[in-house]
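Q: Trace token order:
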Amino acid sequence: MIEGLLGGFGNLFQPFNFFILMVGVLLGFIGGGIPGISGTMLVIILLPVSYAMDPAAAFLLLTSIYATSVFSGSISAILFRTPGTPEAVATVFDGYPMAKKGEGGKALGISIFSSATGGVFGTLVLIFLTPLLASFALRFSSPEYFALALMGLTVVASLSAGNLVKGFIGVSFGLFIATIGIDTMTGVPRFTFGSGQLMSGIDFIPVLIGLFAISEVLRRVQQVHKVNAKQKVSSELPDWNVMKRISGVIGRSSLLGVFIGILPGIGATTAAMLSYSEAARWSKRSKEFGTGIPEGVAAPESANNAAAMGAMVPLLSLGIPGSATTAILLGAFILHGIQPGPLMFTTQGSLIYTILMGLLVANLLILVIAKPFISVFSKILQVPYTIIGPLIVLFCIVGTFAVRNSIFDVAMMLVFGIIGYYLENAKFPLAPIVLGVVLGPIAEDQFRRAMQMSNNDISIFFTRPIALTFIVLSIISILYPFINKWIKKRKNNASDSDQTVAS
């Protein structure tokens, strides 16, 4: 392995290969930072271009775009409340409130540090533990996937801004949205009302962009006269006090991100949502999440970058893509006549270690290049919002249309923008809705597959150790707030009784 890593390091720093890596890093920053363009889209666009390159240069280009675009989606999420990539949706919850409080530079600095740390951690795990993690991922089946999604859904209490009823209504609405369309297991239309356009369901992207980006543009248009068009933002890496505050969150979220990333088909967006929810669930500041705190930025950003690297584990070791982008990378390998799988480390060792070293350097370059890139990108803030707002809407329309080439998706985006605007005016939390939309399809599909596996015997969820562990943690997390509240109430009553006796 050491010999392979040294060889990969040497290949990486050949002038042309390193130049291609830098091009990929910059393209990843641009693609993730501009709303409506994602790393996945850039990888698709550049796939034909990579065919004319040497395999080492081709995969350095594609994988560096993949690695850095996951981070750069947080830039527009923090500055404009418009996630540049789906992986940055959870970053909006606390990143944008920090920017509204005048702490945009601090939020961006936390995002840079957390993303680089999570990405480097995920790459090191990828380098040293790929065979072990791949074998562990194979132990996951439908019951485990359902239990994992269930654990994520139970965090609704922490994301409900103190109103549990609204939180459950929000997550139920998200779950309902996820059921619209053709049932993947029976082929029966659900909630389509005879509309052919609803047959394919409502995609996650229009919902996400509508609820956050379009609703924010509508809100800001009303307040445009109050906006400071000369606002300047420059990123600042977290100081020692902030570093100590977020270090535990980064460590836990990076571990969770890698773990979720290695599970085929789950992806970095789900990892970011779950890591944010777990950070909120177990934090002493759980009630402050969503108001603009550093932990709310550090958790999803470290998790999504770690998950992006974790998704490479099943791709390289088993030939199974762990996410949408790695599915495209699988096609790129096949295009170059390479078959990913267990023998790849033997037959293509030089290429593999070159890719691994490229991913490591690309994640480290986030620390170096992000600050000057943000200083240029943030100059957009100096443009009056009467110009920025329509441009954001334009990018959102183009990006939404490009996902499925559907005008219907654009219409859905605008509808959810109006819904999000009125929900926020009613102080209705949007995070539970997104939680339901992201985790709903996973929970439903895997639950039904598990029931088929067991001939409709519900005990399958309680006889498999991993699934049972997740379910027990879900029950504990639901009961914990109520038990904690009951204990505090008893202590207060006991204290009042003591004071009465003393008087």
